[in-house]
């Protein structure tokens, strides 16, 4: 995920990369160094309305500024923020057939009977 994000970074900009609603933030430290932050949050954990996403991006901006200041001991620049999305293929969902479900049900019944017998 980090490799893909680095390929999409925009030089001298704060870049936020969305990979299937998980985010990587790339903070430009200098021309040769970048800091990657991968917050433990995704949009499945927060409401998907515009206000909440905007708040999320604002918080990432503040966090990035703080990280920059701590690393460089300088005031952070006024970065433009770029949001990039890595396209991902939709996963195909497969459902159990009636035969599979019947077999699983029979196995569960055998387990329950065995537990009942041992108790």
Summarize this structure briefly.
By secondary structure, the chain is an alpha+beta fold. It contains three helices and four strands.
Any overview of this molecule?
This protein is an alpha+beta fold. The protein has helices at 2-8, 50-72, 98-118; strands at residues 14-19, 22-28, 34-37, 81-86. A four-stranded mixed beta sheet has the order 3-2-1-4, with helices on both faces. The model has no long low-confidence stretch (mean pLDDT 80).
| Residue runs with pLDDT of under 50 for 5 or more positions | none
Number of helices: 3
Write down the overall geometry: elongated
Estimated share of beta-strand residues? 15-25%
Rg over C-alpha atoms, rounded to the nearest angstrom? 23 Å
Biggest sheet layout: 4 strands, mixed
* N-end to C-end Cα span: 49 Å
Helix/sheet category: alpha+beta
Helix content: 40-55%
Q: What's the average pLDDT?
A: 80
Number of strands: 4
What's the helix-strand series? HEEEHEH
List the helices and strands and how they pair.
Layout: H1 2-8, E1 14-19, E2 22-28, E3 34-37, H2 50-72, E4 81-86, H3 98-118
């Amino acid at each position: 995920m980090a490799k893909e994000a680095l390929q999409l970074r925009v030089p001298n900009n704060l870049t936020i990369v969305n990979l299937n609603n998980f985010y990587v933030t790339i903070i430009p430290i200098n021309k040769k160094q970048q800091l990657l932050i991968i917050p433990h949050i995704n949009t499945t954990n927060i409401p998907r309305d515009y206000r909440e996403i905007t708040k999320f991006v604002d918080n990432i901006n503040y966090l990035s500024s703080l990280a920059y200041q701590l690393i460089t001991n300088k005031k952070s620049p006024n970065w433009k923020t770029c949001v990039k999305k890595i396209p991902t293929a939709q996963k195909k969902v497969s459902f159990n057939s009636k035969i599979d479900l019947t077999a699983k049900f029979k196995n569960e019944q055998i387990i329950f009977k065995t537990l009942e017998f041992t108790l």
